[in-house]
Every structure is written in C-alpha cells, then in structure tokens.
Amino acid sequence: MRATTRMTGFAKKTVERLLVRAGEACANFQHRTLRTLKCKRLQVDEVWSFTHCKQANIPDRLKGERHVGDTWTWVGLCPDSKLVVGWHVGKRTANDAFGFIHDLKERLGGRVQMTSDGLRCYIEAVESAFGSEIDYGQLIKLYGNETPQMETRYSPPPCIGTRKTRIAGNPDPAYI
Question: CA dihedral in degrees (84, 88, 91, 92; nearest 10)?
Fold first, then answer.
C-alpha cells in the first residue's frame, strides 16, 4: 500500500513532485521577469538551515555530498517594497556569495545602496559585481557575554549593539 498524506489524501511522492514543479516554475518566472528593477536600497543576508542532518552529524557515507548538511539561503530584499529581488540556496562560501551577488546585480536597473552583515565574503563579491557603482555598508552586530542562567545552546549571546561601516561609495548611514 502506498503512503499517503493525511492532509491531501495523495501519495507523498505525488505531493513532493508537485511542490518541486511549482518551485521550479516560480524560480523560472522570477528569473525571467525580475529585471531592471528600480530598487534604491537592498538588504542582503543569509539564513541557516540543514538538509538531512546538521553538518557535524553527517554520516560517513554522505560526507562530501554538497546537498547534505548545513544549508544557507541567501536573500536580497528591497526594504521599501519588501520584494525578494533574488535568492540562492547553497553553502556559506565565497563562491556562493559571488554567484548570489552577481545574480542580484543582473536584476537591478540602477545604482543601489546595499547593506549586509559583517560576513567578509560579501566585500569581494560586491566589488566584483558592482565595482564602484554601489553605495555599500555593513551593519555588524556586537554581542555581549553569555549569562549562566540563559539557555544558549541554540542561540548566540545577546546583541548589545551594532556598528555601521562604510565599505564602498557613499551609503547613507541612516539606511545601513
């Protein structure tokens, strides 16, 4: 007997195939239509998740597989319209940063002010993609010491402030 999902009554593989096809259709639509966007500002960041298991728990038989372990979704957001201008799923590497930032550059129709966190690989990726045609700053979070009473196993210590750093061009500090 085939496994079905309780919610739909359809086979699990059928639902999975439908979701993959819908995702591919959405990605193709976004790739074709989100071009020459008139965004003035852009915020970029990465979101961590894992595929199959966390990086530290990858079984020997799956070590070296690119699509197993820590997975990062890179997101470029226009804070004015809330439009996700571009995204990339991969690892947290310089190669993934380059691909993500170059894709964003292809989607934009003019000069933007970009803000990222302090991840170093953004600096070279942004310079490679935009050259001097960008106003770029980083918002770096400053963390305090952990307190013994806090449950911090899955959380960083508390953020106690931020530091704004100009990287390229003339970013408006109010929007970093």
Answer: -40
Please state, in angstroms and rounded to a whole number, the distance separating the CA atoms of residues 117 and 134. Answer: 16
Tokens of 14: 């059928």
Domain extents in the chain: 36-175
36-175 — its CATH code?
3.30.420
Q: What is the pLDDT of residues 74-128, one digit of tens each?
A: 999 999 999 999 999 999 999 999 999 999 999 999 999 999 999 999 999 999 9
**Residue whose C-alpha is closest to residue 168's, from 139, 146, 135:** 135
Global pTM reads 0.85
Q: Which residue has the tokens 């170093």?
A: 120
Q: Where are the alpha helices (DSSP H) in 36-110?
A: 94-107
In angstroms, rounded to a whole number, what is the distance separating the alpha carbons of residues 124 and 23? 30
The Cβ-side half-sphere exposure at 136, using a 13 Å CA radius, reads 20
Taking phi first (over 0 means left), then psi (-120 to 50 degrees means alpha), and beta for anything else, what does residue 52 get?
Answer: left
Helix (H, G, I), strand (E, B) or coil at 87: strand
